[in-house]
Amino acid sequence: MTCQEVVEYMNRYLDGDLDELERQELMEHLRRCPDDQELFERLQRLSGELGELPKVTPPFSLVDSILPQLDEIDAHREAKAFALQAAETAETGASGGQPARRPAAGRFSRRARIWTGSAAAAAAAAIILILAPWGSGPDSPLGHSNTVADTGGEAASMMSASEESAPASADRTEGAASGGSEAGAEPKQQIVDGQTVPTSTTPPDSETRSVAPRMEQNQRTQGPESPSVSAGGGQGSTVYPSPGGGAAREFAKTPQGIMNFAGPSPGVVSDIMGSADMGFAAVPEVTYSPDRAYSYSISQGWIVIQNAAGGKVFDHTFEGVVSHPVWSDDSRYLSVTVTATDGTAKPYRIDAENGALVE
Amino acid sequence: MVEPGLIRAAQQGDRDALVSLLRDIENHVYRTAYYILGNEQDALDASQEALIRIYTKINSYEEKAQFKTWIQRIVTNICIDKFRRTKPVVSIEEHDMVFREKQDVEEEVLSAYAAKDIREAIDKLPDHHRAVVVLRYLQDFSYNEIADSLDLPLNTVKSYLFRARQQLQTLLHDYQKGGVRG
């Protein structure tokens, strides 16, 4: 037996991998070779010690500690499925020939990007308000979900879903970016188009009148039956998916987004407002790298980076809250600050290309 | 370790089954992370991330593989790819001098290595060697199961394990002979 063979036999012996003949060969060799005998004894001792290493257990239930994140994941999934469905319906409905709607497949997507970063009009927030109760109707596949975590998730996923759906056009970009008025006007018009049943209740607040009753109406006509956009509201509702994400963000940021709709439909609004603090904290921000190759979503300590195809390239949960995301100019790195529960802030850099933390 | 029926239920969308499954495996996940990463905090972070990934990827598990090797693949990947790469190795504990006091008494010296000495020695191994040792001794995996978990050829697993033992044996032997602690 060569020296190498002996060492291999020793190791295989420790792993119970020697047959009887091999074992006898090894023992025979060791009897004649004190050095190997000593090595063998040390390896045996080591193996015994390794086998007795403490079977450590976590100091607390790991599953309990991640349950909130698991809930959030579920909400995201449901919302995404919903948003995709809505987006598909929107594309189908887009051939209906409404003048306000551009036929190009790329429209929605570019707009979604713009909405992400630009000031959204109040009407856009209305869409979310409409969407929220409608998505959580009793027979909706989303199940019963009055929590804003779900609502927010819908909005966020809608953005990414519509984002995935297509490219865009420049004129639309400028139009929407230059001010909320045009961006807001279109959806509002669509909502009017989508009105199938005249509302009998006249809200006291004239400012809210134009949108809120329709919200209730949409609930009635679309909510219970089906989540499909075209099912109840007619063609008009096909605009929903596009600006949803931006609207959600603005809704979260601007109080007047809520104020405008508070009058006529207190029940719905209070549901949303009541949980706004918690819920909109869970609305992930989605922002694109300068070259649009990647987008990130941040929710508390959870950060996900997706590539343009929607594939996840990075998924990590920090102990703390992630803030101040900044893309590097070359779109490769995303720098963030993580503030731990004890208040200490620490910078991290994520290599989006390799899906790894680099510092 | 996990009932096949539970896995199937989880894959069919039974959330309670999935959460229950995670509870069944959390200690195994944590143990691997703890010994690969060498400290509790990173082990907790990595284990939580692994459990979340298992939760989201449960449908990508196929029954042709063993479930336990599938989860160990997930946790070892997270430990090696993310945590190990970005964080400097942190020494687990202060070294105490017990062996040096005994070093002239060969019999006693050879009687036992302290668990923390072994952990420190494990921590000095290259990542994949360490992972092989952890799966072999903390998860009681066979060569084949280790190969499946780490996506390594069988012969590579053996080679890593044998070399790791050799290195550990040398490190611990050196400690005894006079505290060469790198």
TrEMBL record, chain B:
Query: Could you give a single Gene Ontology term from the biological process aspect?
Result: DNA-templated transcription initiation
Q: Which UniProt keywords apply?
A: Sigma factor, Transcription, Transcription regulation
- Looking at the record, the residues that make up the RNA polymerase sigma-70 region domain are 24-87
The record's section on InterPro entries has: RNA_pol_sigma-70-like, RNA_pol_sigma-70_dom, RNA_pol_sigma70_r2, RNA_pol_sigma70_r4_t2, RNA_pol_sigma_r2, RNA_pol_sigma_r3/r4-like, WH-like_DNA-bd_sf
Q: Name one GO molecular function term.
A: sigma factor activity
Domain of life of the native organism: Bacteria
Which part of the chain is the RNA polymerase sigma factor 70 region 4 type domain?
A: 117-168
Q: Which family does it belong to?
A: Belongs to the sigma-70 factor family. ECF subfamily.
What name has this protein been given in UniProt?
RNA polymerase subunit sigma
Q: Which organism is it from?
A: Paenibacillus herberti
